[in-house]
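ok trying again, last paste got cut off:
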Amino acid sequence: MNDTPQTPDPIRGSARGDAAVPLSVLDLATVSSGSDVATALRTTTDNARQAEALGYHRLWVAEHHSMPGIASSSPAVLLAHLAAATDTIRLGSGGVMLPNHAPLVVAEQFGTLEALHPGRIDLGLGRAPGTDQATMRALRRHNDPDPDDFDGQLDELVGFLDDAFGPRHPYAHIHAVPGPVQAKLSGTTASRPPIWLLGSSGYGARLAGQLGLPFAFAHHFAARNTLPALELYRENFMPSTVLDRPYAMVAASAVAADTEYEAARLARTMGLAMLRVRGGRPGLMPSPEEAEAYRYSDAEAEFVHSWLANVAFGEPHAVRQELDELIKATQADELMIVSNVHGHETRLRSFRLIAEAYGMA
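nice, full thing came through this time. structure:
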């Protein structure tokens, strides 16, 4: 019998209960109407603890800016807090919007997180600004990175994370600290967070495949592109030192409640919130009462109806059935669940009910 402890795979998870694939959580630190940012961040912390106890594989937070209803504008700061409040669950960014930041800064932030919580941190990277164009200009000032140079920014980030610039590179003598430079000086082995590429179209899918990186697709807001993007990823996949075969995670919206009626009321709050975002009027997550009282135009009603068609909501067994169908259709290796609804307890309960439906609790 081999008693040597097995090193956990930094990417691939294990399914819990009777789920076909590992289940994970995307938490947007939602700020609900009638509440405040402090409560939203406490809820995200509670959610991380609960997700760990229930057997969810990982919990990610996402970078958004100038959106009053989302409190996760600084993933690295929030992840440090969540990691200190938990023990085993993987935590990461879903994602950091790389064009908003100098690659060296991202390498230092996530090098610090990895040093504090080795083997538990994921670095998910996106190409979009995570906000509107005006806010993007405020973020990037005059050194606005060319979004078409994402490949170059990614190469630079990897160079800092691995301390791997060639001797003629202009950054050859610059080191991300914490990082491999300390390990080299002390004769120890350094670890770094695995990089994931995120996407809602074909660009990230193709690049992740070509680089042999894990890929996470945003089905929760780009459902029409899900199957084409995953096909692109798998067609372009080249084995790497990171992965020998593709690993695709799909993020999907799901709301479970004790009754179908209550789940539908909660889901409609998501529809109204997204309607306001798309209309350039982002605000706090509306309550079910606000969503019921809102007077929708025909076009708005059609938008919300179309949006909710891609949300799995209902009693727990019904939500599980829809999620299982999505897993089968996409052949996803992992499913990340988004329950971006109004209210502290309703969000926590939705994740718990889904875990119970899969026999995880």
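cool. The first strand starts at residue 23 and ends at 27. The longest helix spans residues 260-278.
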